[in-house]
Amino acid sequence: MGIATAGLSPIEQTAFLTEYARALDSQWPRSILGDALAFDVVSKVDYDFVGLGVPTSVVCQTALRAKMLDDRVRAFIADHPDAVVVDLGAGLDSGFYRVDPPSSVDWYSVDLPGIIAVRDAALPARAHSHSVPVSVADVHWPDTIPADRPAMLIADGLFAFLPETQIAAIFTRITDHFVSGEMAFNDYGRIGWFSRVAVKLAPQRMFKAVGSQWGYAGFKDACYPLTWNPKMTLVEETSLTHQPEVDLFPSWIRVATKMAGKSKSGARKARILRYAF
Question: Pfam families per the record (predicted)?
């Protein structure tokens, strides 16, 4: 009998989508992320992962965006060896173990209590890895995290499930609490009505689960989040479609991804945005 998941809310269960995608990638001969721990976590959890119907294209994008965020965390830690790393909407992600920061760095995984309980049961305990079982909609979510050290905040897949008012509140809370740092997250650009309907009508259970929880239509201009918090500065807008790891994608997905990257609208559908404060 695996770790129980029956009591999790639909929004908490969306964490299983990305974890299973990372696990599938780890089993490929040419893995993009190489997160073997994700496969171990999936094997411990009592959930119908196969029934999600996660397509290969989603595996590719999920693995590569996680790698891109990992790379930015590593770069920040290299410049700030006393940093705190804050993973918002962490789910079951094992980014702490992939990055393997020095003991001078503390890593905080923030998510809803139900999924944090599964996380703590499935992932090995480490002295400098801390779980924060709280909703990011709660204004007090950073209260247990040190405020006087450089902070690297990441969010992988979180903001698509939140209304804009909550996202804006998170941006404000970041600079209210932390002295300095960066915020990096994956973004899909502006999501039009056609894409939202297509996700809901797709046959895979994965898309139905995501479509039912989608909370934000997004934005085109990467400077738009500065309207939420002018104390932040845009320092990077990078498209997944332009990364060298795209060459590891299966042939038809590789071609489609590179073609999408030739237009601004296509490139912004899978991008990493990074802001400094």
Answer: LCM
* C-alpha–C-alpha distance, residues 37 and 25, integer Å: 11
Q: Of 42, 17, 21, 43, nearest to 33 (Cα)?
A: 21
Instruction: Calculate what percentage of the chain has a pLDDT beyond 90.
Output: 88
- Does 5 reside within a domain? no
Cα 197 to Cα 176: distance, rounded to the nearest angstrom: 37
DSSP characters over 218-257:
--S-TTGGGGT-TT-EEEEEEEGGGSGGGGGS-HHHHHHH
Residue labelled with tokens 């040419």: 30
Is residue 195's pLDDT more than 70? no
- Say how many CA atoms lie within 13 Å of 24 toward its Cβ: 21
> The domain spanning residue 114 has which CATH number?
3.40.50.150
- Identify whether 199 is part of a domain: yes
Work out the percent of the chain whose per-residue pLDDT is above 70. 91
Contact criterion met (CB below 8 Å) for 244 and 208: no
Domain count, the chain: 1
Angle subtended by helix axes 15-26 and 36-44, to nearest 10: 130
The 10s digit of each residue's pLDDT in 75-129 is 999 999 999 999 999 999 999 999 999 999 999 999 999 999 999 999 999 999 9
What pLDDT is attached to residue 194?
Answer: 46
DSSP state of 123: S
